[in-house]
Amino acid sequence: MSVEVSTLRGGLTVATDRVETVATVSLGAWVGVGTRHEPAPVNGIAHMLEHMAFKGTERRSAYDIAREIEAVGGHLNAYTSRETTAYYARVLSEDVPLAVDIVADILQYSTFDEEELERERAVILQEIGQANDTPDDVIFDRFQETAYPGQALGRPVLGTAETVSGLDRATLRTYMRDHYTRTAMVVAAAGDIEHARFVDLVAAAFDSLPDSNSAAAEPARYGGGEFREARELEQVHLVLGLEAVGYLDPDYYVASLTSTLLGGGMSSRLFQEVREKRGLVYSIYSFVSAYRDGGLFGIYAGTGEREVTELIPVVCAELSRLTRDVDDEEVARARAQLKASILMSLESMSSRCEQLAQQILGFGRPLPVPEIVARIEAVDGAAVRRFAARLLASRPTLASLGPIARVESLDQVAARLG
Questions:
Q1: Which one of 4, 107, 285, 368 is at 20 to 30 Å from 232 when CA atoms are compared?
Q2: Cα 192 from Cα 109, distance rounded (Å)
Q3: Is 127 one of the catalytic residues?
């Protein structure tokens, strides 16, 4: 493994992770802009830009983009998150010049054709409708909104039907020009790639990016609170969360290990106590959502209307127990799970490429695997207990959807966690 990083004119970062034993390359452009960089009236614009980038450039139609990449057996895709938008491809090593050219083309020369815009708007509105019809999608959006009320970090990645309906071509152009800049972007590749060759390709292809960057984001302000929506569903969908830490916080790896120990697998406390011993749920797990300057620690459960009465006290008891009862064996098991996940991900060129780009955007540098492993190894039972106490010092966030008559109030849940 050989990671190299270069900075081109104007601040564009180019990074490679060379793996000579494969015949493919995963590459792409990661832009440090997402939902939290959107003013309220244009919520969803980062996601719409991701869609529209594939709908034609000055040199290629939407069909040309798809045809050219698939003619060499390649794959092209994108995603939007709350802090990042990514455009990436996977190709054979000899087709890297084509993949770089296509990604550079869509990020600099998209035309945002009016007819294509209206068609894609309709697609996104269907996507929003589909998400609204999916309870375990809705509940996470409502949880996020309740945890970060009245701010961009709490708004849905897809936007709303109202905001998406109001986005026009000029607004898209302006947003891309102001946010897709050299200093906000990392172009990365992993696989059978030579760094110097890749740098030359990127320098030539990404020649029209603006230099300045105005992707400012308001600070994360955790609020907490309660969301309840009664629906005629078979299950209660429930998310209980607390204020956690961002990925720059020294406790980030403590948070990850705590989540793994509590609800990260079949041997975790929640799975064993809630599902295996009591049969209260089909699905339960914990998670960490980390941002640059804040984060969430949450537990999702899907349960029956009657079972929710027993579920919430059990979950609260397991959270509270983390502050006083953590043994060495379960910490070691959680460490092993985290380390294995990291090391197994290195077998995927797509994962390596994404990790490299995200680390540079987030930390300003690639993180060597031994450094990450050492941070995980440093987490012990005392650190988990301390972090759990830090979690429980915050106001909880509770979101519930479905037949919720028996779901306890936020005040009752807070009292159990107090």
A1: 285
A2: 28
A3: no
